[in-house]
Amino acid sequence: MKPALTLALCALLLSCGASEPQAPQQGGLPPGDRALCQDPQALRLRVDPEAWSTRPANNFVRVQGDVAWVVQSGSNTIGRLALDTGAWEPDFVDVSADGQGRNPWDLAAYQGRLYITNLLTDTITVADASTGQLLGELGDLGLVAPGTPAAGQGLLVVPGTGFVYPDYGPSQIVALRVLEQAPWLEPVALLEPSGVNTGWVSFDERRGRFYAVSTGARSQDAASGVFGASSPGAVDVLDAQALLRGEGQRAMLGSISLSLAPGELRAGSPRSLVLGPEGRYGYLPSSTAPHLYKVDLESLALLRGPEDPIEVYVGEGNQLTGLAFVAGGLGLVTAFNQDAAYVFDPGCEQSIAGPVGLGTGPLLEGALDIAWDARRAQALVLMSNSSRLARVRVE
Amino acid sequence: MQAIPSHKLSSPGGFCLKLLLCLLWAQPALAQQGSQMDVTVEGEPEDARAPSAWRSRLDLERLQRTGGDLAEGVGAQAGVYARRLGADGARAELTVRGGSSQQVLVLLDGVPLNAARGGGVDLSLLPPSLLQSAVVHRGGSAARFGAGALGGALSLRSRLPRRGLVASATTGAGSFGTWRAGGALSGGGQELRGLLALEGLWTQGDFPFEDDQGGERVRVNADAQRLSGLNTLVWEPAPRWQLRLTSLLSQVDRGVPGVAEFQDVLSQARGQERRAVLAAQARRAELVDLPGALVDLELHASWSGQDNQYRNPQRLLRGDLPFESQLLDQSLQSGALASAYLGSLLGHVGVQLRSEGLRRRELVQPDRFAVDRFWRSGASLFADAEYLLWEERVSLLAALRLQWVEGFGWTPSPSVGVRAQASGSLTLMGNLARAWRPPGFDELYLKQEFLEGDPSLRPEDALSADLGLRWQPAPWLRAELVGFWLEIDDLILFLPVSQTLFRAQNTGAVTSRGAELSLELRPAPWCSLQGAGTWTDASLQAPPQDPLPGRPALEGQLRASLHGPRWEVFAGVRGRSALYLDNFGNLSDPAALFVDAGVVARPWKQLQLSLVGRNVLDERGAVDSLQQPLPGASLYAQLSWSLEPEPQEEEP
Fold first, then answer.
1. Are residues B387 and A5, on separate chains, in Cβ contact within 8 Å?
2. pLDDT at A38
3. Which residues pair with B374 in a beta bridge?
4. Mean pLDDT score across all residues of chain A
5. Which residues of B touch A387 (CB under 8 A)?
6. Cross-chain residue pair B542–A22, CB shorter than 8 Å
7. Which residue has the higher pLDDT, B449 or B335?
8. B475 preceded by a cis bond (ω within 30 of 0)
9. How many helices (H) and strands (E) does chain B have?
10. Which residue of A6, A119, B36, B182 has the fewest CB atoms within a 10 Å radius of its CB?
């Protein structure tokens, strides 16, 4: 027996080579990646990655005045963060109060009300922004899988991605007049966008325009396994007054196409258009590549497209998710795959610092969206996998 | 979730007071009776192959008396947490000492039930009425069972036929439209005997619960219809020879209600699961019978299959194409085990051959299924030995299993143990072992739209240690206190790598440490108290050392029973601390407390009635994983009839 015992002990010792615990990569670049340029003096950023906890499957954060709204699709709720006090009410609006899961996607806060797009029911829920009370729900608008809405000049414009598994069907853009009482919204136009997967609308107050972004279809390349763009993206420019007048398709002032880049499977797939600091240019992060695209909002021309992108960093990480312009006209871009943010300088069209770690540990937390709170000089970053809202103080 | 109002806690408080009174009242009687008491705490019989192992044997009779399921039984043991996805009939799994459910090996008559694709074993398909015994092996001593036993193992033995005619029938009904019926018939003689047992469960499962926002909801599409059967034939053609054939079939057709916030889009999702085990075993006792040497030999062969089908006519994100998939797991296993008794040495040597496969079929277009097939083989050689020292007061154990799995080569799983009788009432036991788990087929090869495996994954590799005391100062008192430590390297998890893709990854190392306390007290013939509690600290090693989800830091239960020859009244309390629901220690379910109570009566010798209330405080806000609510208060009544011959010697 003794040889057996000795053998077992030896085998035990030989087999237990303890491995060193891996150090956390706080926003570090994956091997092989490199930032294009770094200037740590540009901005001083203080990150509090665990500032607030959200409900699961958070989607977007929107700042309006002294309130931040967090859309939490996994719990069918909208959270309300009082920015002055930090008071957090995770279930301020419950769009499933009747028991039906609606999967809220995003919202527009406008004139004291929240207009929430529901992905599963193709509806818009209207809620009181001061009490959270549900005021109504509008359906039968011709929307299929609605995306990110925007509001301005008495209008709410909502895109429909048209996604019907497994393919993207025709997209829609619906314009609705905002009413002071029930039914709260009145359809004034149903438009056909230039591309597919129209998921984002933003409002340009200075020009009285809405920009509807079609991301284009995305698919996995069979040969390489790369998940990338498979049809061009587009930015449709809509005139708010023409929409209000019910001019329909004629309200579309123009369209900017973001064609595919041959040989670059990841290039393309733009997300929401974000107005630059002086409002002349618009920037669109790619949802499949570490790229920003740039359009001239005066001439409606594409300046930096998928074939000539602004590279925020170089590497295998493939997703930028949010962009917000902060103090000094600099942009903060979130990189989903790296739990990190980059500082983007629109003047030189380069990232000048980063990655700035936003996570807390070795597991990917997924920076999904960012919003800028100018009054308190802080950016709020939504970490989708870890259900957290991080705070980045800009000094 | 809302905290339980304090007035609701008055009920368990009163219960504890009564229990204390019961114990105090019993003390003089104990002093008078001393060791003459005929009521004793039996404890767990030693395992001849691992006398130092920390094991807990489930009281299957009690579970059957009260309509409890296997998950309820394992969840009552120290070191074990049973995770449920709903009420009766819903999927249930167990975790041991901070490991995951797929890091627990579950065996039926020695046949591993863990699917080749990975994941835990669904205990809801294994009703206690079909089992002869169920033993939880905690910690490293379970490594001897084979790959996959990182946290521990659950060893189940199918019910055996008895000599003479034995018949029984049970029927019961309860809350949420639940109905259970079963029966068994066993008969035969010295040479040949057989058993046929059946059990069915039908439940609507539509229990009320409280969602995260405090809203009152009703669980929909949680119905289940389960039918399970066991057939066993034992033939003893000659002295010391035994042949045994066993077949177990269990199938369930149930709703898969999914997360509570989206019940409507999952209201038609259905799952059909079938599990079958066919096993043949031949045993020759005393194959070699020489002075000072005795050798027994056991040969076995088995087939195990598991067919899981899922269908949801509604896509989560619309579309006409239903979600439809089928997973067919199969394994073939054969082996031999020789047990040798040579003076003060007891040893075992064995060999096992195993092949396991998976066929995955998924609807990808209206008229086209994608089909994937995977298959791999394996082999094990194992040996263990026990050496007795100092008048058999100290036992040293050593075991080594060398296991080869196609694609991963040979991996040793050595273990050592010690068991020392410190005094007449105190026993010290400790174990140190290495265990491992090769990645499942899903973790290696899964290729779906949002999920993919990684063929380059490394196996999970664990080092496990424990040390504890067992104290039995009197026949009516038994207590155990064990400290454990488990380190798992290369933990495999499906984690997001992008917004649209989860991939299986070797995540890093995790550590689980903790302590287990078990107590069994029978101060009087009519009063007993059983309790188990566990403290577990399971977390990732890399900073910030986030806690692992689904493992409460504290959990335990206490059960008191008053009983006579024809009746029993019992009450118990189960509780756990907050339960983390994500990998970041961010989302959690608050601490929860459940109180159960019941009465069992045997008005006639062959008839038994029971009435059991579970979660009688009606805690409706608890979950066991994200948005998978647990039922509130329920009531279950059962009537059992049995015809048994006079007591006879138990089967080996």
1. yes
2. 46
3. B358
4. 88
5. 582, 584, 586-587
6. yes
7. B335
8. no
9. 4, 38
10. B36
CA-to-CA separations, A306 to A90, A335, B440, B550, B551, in angstroms, rounded: 38, 18, 40, 44, 47
- What DSSP state is assigned to residue B52? T
Residue A279, classed as helix, strand or coil, is: coil
Could you tell me the two tokens for B258?
């999914």
**A1 to chain B, minimum CA–CA distance in Å?**
6
How many C-beta atoms surround the C-beta of residue A172 within 10 A?
22
Residue B26 Cα distances to A133, B22, B185, B471, B572, angstroms: 60, 6, 41, 21, 19
Tokens of B342: 């040579």
Q: Reduced to 3 states, what is the DSSP secondary structure of residue B63?
A: helix
3-class DSSP state for residue A315?
coil
Is the N-terminal amide bond of A355 cis, ω within 30° of 0?
Answer: yes
Burial label for A331, CB within 10 Å (0-12, 13-18, 19+), is: buried
Phi, psi angle pair for A12, to nearest 5°: -65, -45
Q: Is A75 on the interface with B (CB under 8 A)?
A: yes
Backbone angles phi, psi at B95, to 5 degrees: -125, 150
Tokens 């001239």 sit on residue: A296
Amino acid letter, residue A224:
S
Report how far residue A186's alpha carbon sits from residue A126's, in angstroms, rounded to the nearest whole number: 12
Judged by DSSP in three states, A12 sits in helix
How many C-beta atoms surround the C-beta of residue B217 within 10 A?
A: 18
Whole-angstrom Cα distance, residue B331 to residue B113? 9
**How far is residue B487's CA from residue B467's CA, in Å, rounded to a whole number?**
15
B414 and A163: CB-CB below 8 Å?
A: no
Shortest CA gap A85–chain B (Å): 22
Q: Which residues of B touch A384 (CB under 8 A)?
A: 499
B474 vs B470: CA distance, rounded Å: 12
**DSSP state, B128?**
G
Q: Which amino acid is at B445?
A: Y
Given an 8 Å threshold on Cβ–Cβ distance, is A386 in contact with B265? Answer: no
Q: Which of residues 146-185 of A touch B (CB under 8 A)?
A: 163-166
Q: Which residue of A has its CA nearest to B266?
A: A101
R_g over Cα of chain B: 25
Q: Is the dihedral of CA A91, A92, A97, A100 positive or negative?
A: negative
Strands B451-452 and B501-506, sheet pairing? parallel
DSSP H/E element including B71: helix B70-75
**Is the ipTM here above 0.90?**
no
Quick one: pLDDT at residue B28? 34
The residue among A350, A347, A325, A323 whose CA lies nearest residue A335 is A323
Which residues of chain A does B398 touch, with a Cβ-Cβ cutoff of 8 Å? 1, 4-5, 7-9
Q: Kindly determine whether residue B212 and residue A2, on different chains, have CB atoms separated by under 8 Å.
A: no
Task: Give me the pLDDT at residue A395, please.
Answer: 83
Cα distances from A6 to residues A3, A13, A172, B344, B398, in angstroms, run 5, 11, 74, 18, 8
pLDDT reading at A13 higher than 60? no
pLDDT single digits (tens) B480-514: 999 999 999 999 999 998 887 899 999 999 999 99
For residues B433 and B417, what is the distance between their CA atoms, to the nearest angstrom? 8
The SS3 assignment for B64 reads helix
- Cα–Cα separations (whole angstroms), residue B454 to B396, B444, B457, B496, B642: 41, 5, 6, 13, 53
Answering whether pTM is above 0.80, one says yes
Three-state SS string over A69-91 comes to EEEEHHHCEEEEEECCCCCEEEE
Closest CA to B600 of B633, B629, B568: B568
**What residues 5-64 of chain A have any CB closer than 8 A to a CB of chain B?**
5, 7-9, 11-12, 14-16, 18-19, 21-24, 50, 53, 55-56
Work out the end-to-end distance of chain A between its first and last CA atoms, rounded to an integer number of angstroms: 71
Judged by phi (left if over 0) then psi (alpha if -120 to 50, else beta), residue A5 lies in alpha
